[in-house]
Amino acid sequence: xxxFHQVTKSFPINGSMLPIVKVKHWTVEAGERVAxxxxxxxxxxxxxxxxSGVLPVxxxxxxxxxxxxxxxxxxxxxRYRAQMxxxxxxxxxxxxxxxxxxxxELVLPPAWTKQQRREEVDRWxxxxxxxxxxxxxxxxxxxxxxxxxAMIRALIGNxxxxxxxxxxxxxxWETAGxxxxxxxxxxxxxxxxxxxxxxxxxxxxxxxxxxxxxxLNELVRKTNEAESSADSKGERVG
Length: 238
Ligand SMILES: Nc1ncnc2c1ncn2[C@@H]1O[C@H](COP(=O)(O)OP(=O)(O)OP(=O)(O)O)[C@@H](O)[C@H]1O
Prior knowledge:
By secondary structure, the chain is α/β, with parallel strands linked by helices. The chain contains eight helices and nine strands. The strands form two sheets. Strands 6-7-8-3-9 form a five-stranded parallel β-sheet, with helices on both faces. The chain has a four-stranded antiparallel β-sheet with strand order 2-1-4-5. The protein starts with a strand and ends in a 6-residue tail after the last helix. Keywords: ATP-binding, Nucleotide-binding, Transport.
């Protein structure tokens, strides 16, 4: 589903380019549900942005399904994202003046018939247990309920790849567990590939597969090796 090959990405920081991502080879198979864990600032969100085509690579190749997105123009990456990616954010990104149902209706494929739109929206609100909350504004919903609406929005258009960046990061631990379990079971039953960034090791354990970013990103590995060697000498790096 996702294949990274010799991918690098740097950002301009204090006037020079600082390398953030250097991934030799990484694949996620279709239908896998993977938690990506690792320290703050290690490039996890950047990896998601590269996979979603929000950011272009500096060098290397990223192929998602049949899309060689490293070769795509910005416009092609926008179309790829609309067709292939459902994105879930930590802070939901719902429009506050629209009801839960209207927030979902905004993203429905234009080709769907009126009946298909009605039936699919009803089905998804039922799947996440919010059938009686469709007319509520986001502010009238709990944070866990808001994230369920955001999950519908990511999943309803049949995007095969769901990318989630700390999707439970602003929820209390009990709600976080419920929401993450729901996301996992929906992706399994709807046959989507799921890649989730999380800081929370307890939540990562819910996933069939967990990847630490140091297994992927050479730059993180070098930093960790430097830190552990410094630690063994009783020093700290950086
Ligand atoms: N657009 C950008 N311009 C400059 N630097 C950036 C940009 N995006 C990310 N960075 C830097 O790249 C590094 C990795 O950021 P990233 O958000 O990918 O890390 P992360 O592992 O997701 O961190 P966290 O867990 O704290 O969200 C950080 O040092 C960050 O400041």
